[in-house]
Amino acid sequence: MKIMVVGSGGREHALAWKISQSEHCGKLYCAPGNPGTAELGENLPVQAEDVEAVVAAAREKQVDMVVVGPEDPLAAGMTDAVRRAGIMCFGPTAAGARIEADKAYAKELMRSAAIPTAEARIFKEFRPARDYVLSRDQGVVVKAAGLAKGKGVFVCPEPHMAVRPLEQIMIEGVFGDAGHAVVVEELLTGQEASILALCDGRNIYTLEASQDHKPIGDGDTGPNTGGMGAYSPTPVVDEAMTCHVEREILVPVVDAMRRSFGRYEGCLYAGLMITPAGPKVLEFNCRFGDPETQPLVLRLKSDLVEAMVATCRHRLEEATLEWDPRPAVCVVMAAGGYPGSYEKGHEITGIDAAEGLGDVKVFHAGTAWRDGRLLSSGGRVLGVTALGDTIAGAQKRVYQAVEKIRWKDCYYRKDIAEKAIKA
Question: 176-202: per-residue pLDDT in tens?
Answer without folding.
Answer: 999 999 999 999 999 999 999 999 999
